[in-house]
Amino acid sequence: MIKFDAEDRSAATARYGERYREFGYSPKALGWWGGRQDLRFAVLTSQYDFAGKHVLDVGCGFGDLNLTLRDRTDNYRYTGIDLSAEFIAEAHKRYGSPDVQFAVAEFLEAVFVEPFDYIVESGIFNHRYVRNDNYEVIDACIGKALANCRDGLAFDFNSHTRPNQQPNIFFADPARILAMAQRHSSNVLLRHDYMPYEFTLFVWKDDSFLDEEKVYSRYKMVHGYVPQKT
Fold first, then answer.
1. Residue 117 in contact with residue 100, Cβ under 8 Å?
2. DSSP letters of 39-67?
3. Per-residue pLDDT averaged across 10-17, rounded?
4. Is the pLDDT reported for residue 1 higher than 70?
5. Taking a C-beta distance cutoff of 8 angstroms, is the pair 83, 106 a contact?
6. Do the Cβ atoms of 198 and 40 come closer than 8 Å?
7. How far is CA 14 from the centre of its chain?
8. Torsion of the alpha carbons at 216, 151, 126 and 8, rounded to the nearest 10
9. pLDDT tens digits, 187-215
10. For residue 216, what is the DSSP state?
11. 6-223 adopts what CATH topology?
């Protein structure tokens, strides 16, 4: 299993600490500019029913994903992890409860005692690493997420379709990310339809189907689809 290099981890922690001290409780402290956090969270949660489910939010920042989850259901469990102790303290103050827990942790190093239903992340792949290869980290995170969840994952990315790319920011190739995901499951969705230079990947663990129908079992169950007989 690939490890997140200590130099990259230290740089990320220092960067977020500086932003938090400058901006306080704000998406700008997380590296998001120009708003649209609500849109990112709406897309990130668009494919799953979270009622009665346990969600792991990787790189949770201030835990604001809870605002979107609360709009959808009042019956969910949430665990948020982040490298920044400042972010985790702020998140716990704002959202902490018996069903909403936070911890300072690095995803690839963390050991989970039980699987989650869904694992989501927003923004953790946006920084170009110095020591690690970004695609290797992404592939490792997809693999670990699927090994530690029951149903599926949702990860978002900056898209390499953006012109004038900043050298310190990582812009992922959607086709490469899609191919990477399909090595883990054939039941995937990539949404590049909500902002021009960002996209979200969804991967379901269950990619089973009956050969004679060619329809995913999960899709039939969720959408009540009954294939027509010919």
1. no
2. HHHHHHTTT---TTEEEEEET-TT-THHH
3. 86
4. no
5. yes
6. yes
7. 22
8. -130
9. 999 999 999 999 999 999 999 999 988 99
10. B
11. Rossmann fold (3.40.50)
**Helical segments of the chain, H only:** 6-23, 37-44, 65-72, 85-95, 134-147, 174-182, 217-223
8 A C-beta contact, residue 122 and residue 65: yes
Exposure string of 171-207, with b = 16+ CB inside 10 Å and e = fewer, is: bbebeebbebbeebbebbebbbeebeebbbbbbbbee
Nearest to 6 by CA among 101, 103, 117, 108: 108
Query: Do the strands 198-204 and 53-58 form a parallel or antiparallel pair, or are they unpaired?
Result: unpaired
**What's the CA gap between 118 and 136, in Å, rounded?**
22
Residue burial 69-104, b: 16+ Cβ < 10 Å; e: rest: beeeeeebbbbbbbbbebbbebbbeebbeeebbbee
**Does residue 15 have a pLDDT over 90?**
no
Cα 115 to its chain centre, rounded Å, is 16
Instruction: Compute the distance between CA of residue 183 and CA of residue 63 in angstroms, rounded to an integer.
Output: 30
Confidence of residue 131 (pLDDT cuts 50, 70, 90): confident
User: What is the distance between the alpha carbons of residues 135 and 97, in angstroms, rounded to a whole number?
Assistant: 35
Helices (H), 169-227: 174-182, 217-223
The residues, any chain, with a CB within 8 Å of residue 7's CB and separated by 6 or more, are: 130, 131
Pairing of strands 149-158, 188-191: unpaired
Give the amino acid at 130: V
Query: Model's pTM, two decimal places?
Result: 0.94
Q: What is the residue extent of each domain of the chain?
A: 6-223
